[in-house]
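subagent[fold] <- orchestrator: predict structure for attached chain, return tokens only, no commentary.
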Amino acid sequence: MRAVVVNEPGGPEALEVVDVPVPQPGPGEVLIRVVSAGVNRADVLQRQGHYDPPEGATSVLGLECAGEVVAVGENVGEQEIGSQVCALLSGGGYAEYVAVPIGQIAPLPEGVDVVTAGGLMETCATVWSNVFMIGRLQPGETLLVHGGSSGIGTMAIQLAAAFGAQVVTTVGSPGKAEFCRELGADLVIDYRREDFVEVMRRAGVRADVILDIIGAKYLARNIAALATSGRLVVIGLQGGVKGELNLGALLAKRAAVTATSLRARPAGEKTTIVQQMTGQVWPLIADEIVRPIVHATMPLEDVARAHRILEESSHRGKLILTLDGEDGAPSLGA
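subagent[fold] -> orchestrator:
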């Protein structure tokens, strides 16, 4: 089968489409014939050599996909075969087939096609687990999400608004600002021209929860932007890994800082996240209260172009890789 790997860390040109054996589903796993796979910042970090797969996981890139169940391992019912699903992965999404624990798959939300669904699971699970499970965002509270036009950002804005929260976000252009307002953001700040802490101060707004993809560069300002009893959840390190934390400011606000990742969590935790997330988010998607935002789809062979677009931050929403249909896929014995 075709799959994307990185033999030597580097730029987008380091991504290689190669032939590898089709994985076999182990106990409690299903084998998915992949139709589409989402592209995420974590994939870029892995390509650069900064984010190794968890022990025992495949080195093939890709943390989410959608497709058809074509085989099952022990302790999985045969009735699963033939169902269309989307999946949360530890790796392996950039390939024609991937094996995944059954607890990390979900049916497609009503009204969502299988290509669009390829960019749902990592995005929705990240937002749900960090904003609502860890951040405990409540109706009437305020969420600050950095990078509002990204895949994570567009979903966080919509979900927070759907659950009755006020949303503040940062973006890098006027066009992206207007786009985020259309998605439900109440206050949009151009980080290239404005200091988000100062803009929020003038507006009389403090964040109860902050979803941060920047890390060290924003650490002090994030603490300044928090409300009393606020929760800062760091999920990315685009602005560096080492920052100075004023514990006095943290104590004065009785605030909390959590740094977390989804990929390395045990399968049981991922199953719980998927169950809670699909129970709460899928009905909102079915009712068109929340919608997946797709910037572009492109074939697997254009994976380097997808990574370049992600690094340029010129996108709005998700980038999705597509794979051949049934006629182009290898047999399971290949």
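orchestrator: received. Logging for downstream: The mean pLDDT is 93. The two ends are 7 Å apart (CA to CA).
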